[in-house]
Amino acid sequence: MRLNVEINGEQRQADDVWEGESLLYVLRERLGLPGSKNACEQGECGSCTVYLDSVPVCACLVAAGQAEGRAVRTVEGLADGDTLDPVQQSFVDAGAVQCGFCTPGLVVAAHDLLDRVPDPSDEEIREALAGNLCRCTGYEKILDAVRAVAKGPLGKDTVA
Fold first, then answer.
1. pTM of the full predicted structure?
2. Burial 122-154 (b: 16+ CB within 10 A, else e)
3. For residue 99, what are the CA distances in angstroms to 37, 84, 102?
4. Coil, strand or helix: which one is 157?
5. What are residue 72's DSSP bridge partners?
6. What is the DSSP letter of 93?
7. How far apart are CA 45 and CA 75, in angstroms?
8. Residue 70 and residue 98: Cα distance in Å, rounded?
9. Which residues is 73 bridged to in the sheet?
10. Per-position pLDDT tens, the chain of length 160
11. How wide is the angle at C-alpha 124 spanned by C-alphas 131 and 82, nearest 5°?
């Protein structure tokens, strides 16, 4: 099948897609967007989290056919050209990026939280990020990064 999907605000097509292959596979292998990571392929780690019609989902659990005619926003789509989104920049500044495998999913999850709750409590941050596993950081720097965006001068208007 031919998959027609809006990716990061741009209409894209992928040909010869088996409707049951994962959206993650289509993004990475067919459309050349490697930001979302392929880790567990079971929706357990959160590394492949993307927005599907503005709702965060694990792209490994979404069949390509389910994305037909819908809008997908990946971690690449959070940046504005070469300018990182405030959440992305905060992860870099806080040292919350180590091996980087979990980072895309954590960034999308944090971005979604801050869009819904501009000044979340630590409990809200932990709950929002609970579906994302990290084996390197110990999570404290990740929490610091989210707190910095929430409490910093950037404010909700900069979280796009």
1. 0.92
2. eeebeebbebbbbeebebebbbbbbbbbbeeeb
3. 12, 19, 8
4. helix
5. 7, 52
6. H
7. 16
8. 32
9. 51
10. 999 999 999 999 999 999 889 999 999 999 999 999 999 999 999 999 999 999 999 999 999 999 999 999 999 999 999 999 999 999 999 999 989 899 999 999 999 999 999 999 999 999 999 999 998 888 999 999 999 999 865 444 444 4
11. 70
CA 100, chain centre distance (Å): 12
User: Token pair of 68, please?
Assistant: 């037909």
Q: Which two tokens stand for residue 1?
A: 């099948």
Q: How many residues does the chain have?
A: 160
Please give, one letter per residue, the 3-state secondary structure of 31-74: CCCCCCCCCCCCCCCCCCEEEECCEEEEHHHCEHHHHCCCEEEC
Report whether 156 contacts 82 (CB < 8 A): no
